[in-house]
Design brief:
Blueprint lengths: L1 E3 L8 H10 L5 E3 L8 H10 L5 E3 L9 H4 L11 E3 L8 H10 L5 E3 L8 H7 L8 E3 L8 H10 L5 E3 L8 H7 L7 E3 L8 H9 L9 E3 L8 H10 L5 E3 L9 H4 L11 H6 L2 E3 L1 H24 L45 H11 L4 H9 L3
Helix pairs in contact: 1-2, 4-5, 5-6, 6-7, 7-8, 8-9
């Protein structure tokens, strides 16, 4: 049984407690944005709905650690999806209890849980091979140390979002580049990231077969040369966000971007730079043509200086807006399409549903980061 009460802002503890009492075999419960509920309601759910596989509590702002530490059953290993987005009072202690009680948790969302630290991420690493999807956006207290630990223990991660984790450096990406199943990595506003991180991804040939979506918006140190290496190396890449990266704020490159959302301000439109689907292929082809042309010119002139990619006349290879992929979702991407040994039949479904529910609408994500949300 599935019950979705997302956005029912007038729901309070008593209805949720009655629900748990009368629906003990509940499998999925969505209480997103039910911001009047408290620990009391969630404790009732844990006590009575012992078969839950999916629990969404995003923006339930009143929840504290007690919702988990006091009543979460010790054996809750059927839980596969837990969304705690913006549960801002949650700390590492909740994560310790969660991984102890739900050791086969597959998808975990902790975006905007600002009290989560390296200690909490180290608890998460105990999930090991079971963890496929982890969102740590805006968890600004975490550092390279815990991400290194995460990469070494949770080796089946497909989706990892570290947006606005501002303490992370290239060292974290070095470790993440070893993940053999990584499909999507989010590093938006990780301002310490440099070309060295891109080179780390390229040096480990495993990601060339897996990486499909890369989010590097506002990583201002990146250069065109490094990004060109990335798009050449990762042949499955269908989405690349570079909004706010100075090197890409050029008309000859932005013409390959998907259109910005209609609600964007003029400034947001000016810095918007997201390549999706056909746009990634066109960017790759255009930059490679620039390099070939530059090399030919240098050889002809006997110039041995380092090659610098410079803008060329747009009229040389004009591409109309009608040719661009307006949706930009590309092919493949959001579901796993495979099942690990010993998993139940619908475990893949839970991974796919989480990504779909999280709304991996990347232009929308860029909009949120541009507004500082």
């Amino acid at each position: 049984m599935q019950i979705k009460l997302s956005g029912c802002e007038n729901i309070h503890d008593e209805p949720v407690m009655l629900l748990s009492l009368n629906c003990p075999h509940l499998l999925e419960l969505d209480l997103t944005n039910c911001n009047q509920i408290t620990n009391k309601a969630i404790q009732s759910v844990f006590e009575r709905c012992t078969q839950l596989r999916e629990l969404r509590l995003a923006y339930c702002l009143n929840l504290t650690d007690e919702a988990f530490t006091k009543t979460m059953p010790l054996f809750f290993d059927q839980l596969r999806i837990l969304d705690l987005t913006a549960c801002t009072l949650i700390t590492d202690q909740s994560l310790l209890r969660v991984v102890q009680c739900a050791p086969k948790l597959r998808n975990l969302v902790l975006a905007k849980c600002s009290f989560v630290t390296d200690e909490g991420v180290n608890y998460i690493t105990r999930l090991g091979k079971h963890l496929h999807y982890l969102h740590l956006g805006h968890c600004s207290r975490i550092t390279d140390h815990s991400i290194t630990n995460l990469a070494r223990h949770c080796t089946r991660l497909r989706y990892l979002d570290l947006a606005c984790c501002t303490q992370l450096t290239d060292a974290a990406v070095f470790e993440l580049s070893h993940l053999p199943k990584l499909r999507r990595i989010g590093l938006v506003k990780c301002a310490n990231i440099t070309d060295s991180a891109i080179h780390a991804l390229i040096d480990h040939h495993v990601v060339s077969h897996t990486l499909e979506r890369v989010h590097l918006s506002y990583c201002g140190n990146l250069t065109i040369a490094a990004v060109l290496e990335l798009v050449n190396f990762c042949y499955r890449l269908t989405h690349l966000s570079l909004t706010g990266v100075p090197a890409f704020l050029r008309p000859d490159l932005q013409r390959f971007c998907r259109p910005p959302p209609k609600e964007f301000t003029p400034h947001q439109r000016q810095v918007f730079c997201v390549f999706s689907g056909k746009g990634v292929k066109e960017l790759r082809q255009y930059l490679n043509n620039l390099v070939i042309g530059t090399v030919h010119t240098r050889i002809t002139n006997g110039d041995d200086a380092d090659i610098e990619i410079v803008p060329q006349g747009v009229e040389a290879e004009e591409i109309g807006s009608d040719d661009l992929d307006a949706e930009g979702t590309g092919s493949g991407g959001e579901g796993d399409g495979e099942r690990d040994d010993g998993d139940q039949n619908n475990d893949n479904h839970t991974s796919t549903v989480m990504i779909s529910h999280a709304g991996d609408d990347d232009a929308h994500d860029d909009a949120l980061y541009m507004r500082g949300i």
